[in-house]
Amino acid sequence: MRVLIPYLLRLALLVILIAFLVVPGWFDPLLKPLVRDNAPAIYNQGSLLTLTLLHLRTVAIATTGAILVAVTLAILVTRPFGAEFLPLSRSLVNIGQTFPPVAVLALAVPILGFGEKPTLVALFLYGLLPIFENTLTGLTTLPSSVMEAARGSGMTDRQRLFKVELPLAMPVILAGIRLSVVISLATATIGSTVAAKTLGEVIIAGLQSNNIAFVLQGGLIVGALAVLIYDGFSAIEHVLARRAGLPARA
Amino acid sequence: MIEIDGITKRYDGNTVVNNVSMMIEPRTVTVIVGTSGSGKTTLLRMINRLVEPTSGAIRLDGEDNRSMPGFELRRRIGYAIQGHGLFPHRTVAQNIATVPVLLGWDRARIDAKVAELLTLFQLDPAAFANRFPHELSGGQQQRVGVARALAAEPKVLLMDEPFGALDPIIRAKAQADLLAIQSLLGTTIVLVTHDMDEAFHLAHKIAVMDKGALVQYGKPAELVKDPATEFVQTLIGTSERPFRLLSIETAGDAVEPGPADGKPLAETISQRDALSELLWSGRAAVPVVAADGTVLGKVTLEGLTRRAAKPQ
Ligand SMILES: Nc1ncnc2c1ncn2[C@@H]1O[C@H](COP(=O)(O)OP(=O)(O)OP(=O)(O)O)[C@@H](O)[C@H]1O
Ligand SMILES: [Mg+2]
Predict the structure, then answer these.
(1) C or N terminus of chain A, fewer CB within 10 Å?
(2) What ipTM, to 2 d.p.?
């Protein structure tokens, strides 16, 4: 029974989240005490469900791009011919992470205009680092006897990469993707400052009209999404790592 | 036949293997010994081109090993290493099937080969084929490692300290299994070890490496009789000499006609173990039997003592 509790809690969270997005009216009494006078307690300038789906879509597109670029880059710089580019690519990716997303938005808007595009660029740059670093770690800490056996049994470089290196590094790569997704989920809210359709809209609307209920529900939806997605990834990593007989690396 | 012809390997001006030449006869076991850092692994890895030599050539059945891409060469040569190097994300059957899959064998042939090898290594296919390496004991992992190296029926098997991580009892069993499988399949084996007992037990010929050079290459008995250098002498161990001689051949090779009393010995045990048994049981002679139980004759304390003396 006790082992079931964490799963039940997550299931409950999922059910509440879906209910809130589909029939927000049910939660009106809960949020009402937070607003003054006759201000609405539930966001009323658009559908919460639609905003959530758009929010997720933005994160998914940006993360997919970050995965493709970061994993490819990490693979290239761990090959013999790419080794000399390792320091350079590390610095580039680090800059992507240290450059504040807000600044990226400000710089991207004049070029790309308002809306989703500058947000995608900011999230993409911001999400590269964890995936890149984890893929590097995964590919460079493989057991040497296994790599030796792969070479010794006559695998080509490509076969080693796809049949041995990537499968064994997968749990660590997934951990990087998980971090990246969670960071992006939160960061995507600022996209609404440049008119991207994300849950940030709800929070900004709340700030503008001094409506704490709006701010809270926007934040809580993002938080719930992050928790659920984080746990989902962790579970997949765990299964993969256990199947491979690897120690479950965090 | 493996011809190693004037092979040298240098790393940044450091000569690690120095102008080594040797001929390895087909269907024999050659053991390379020497101190740590003497270049044994490097020499072995130049045979399947995991390391490319600085100069010299290696020919397999007369064919230069650079006449094909390295990965194709390695699919034809078995390779087993210390710590087995099994792929942790693949089952035992998938591990064993590695090279056959790379060679594009059809499914039925691969399955048959996997089952055959598992049985040969005394692992029940039904119980082991679908396990993952971490679900096996060290000894079982090691057997799967050797089975994987033999899966594509290579003529040559290279082994780098394959039994180094095993406890003495499992190691003795693994050595006996290897000899049985080698004579069954007729594989040419080149094996690197630190363990002189293992070398004398397994080798048809022993190659001694010292600081990158091949200082002696010959039958085990020749090494005991005429060590080429002080180093070979030390490696063999002066006080070990008579026992080394006895550990080369089996009790079956020392059988004399005539009856003897008491519990018989198997013909496959070494003469050294036979002597030990005679000394321990206080007998002067003991019967020797074949695997099917037929009495072949006896070994005697006197006969073994004669065999342990310095060869004339
Ligand atoms: N890739 C390499 N680069 C530079 N030096 C190397 C390389 N590989 C091996 N060496 C050096 O070559 C020498 C011989 O190494 P090798 O692994 O062949 O020794 P070994 O006889 O197998 O030793 P051990 O018994 O400890 O396994 C060592 O001094 C080692 O440091
Ligand atoms: Mg070595």
Answers:
(1) N
(2) 0.87
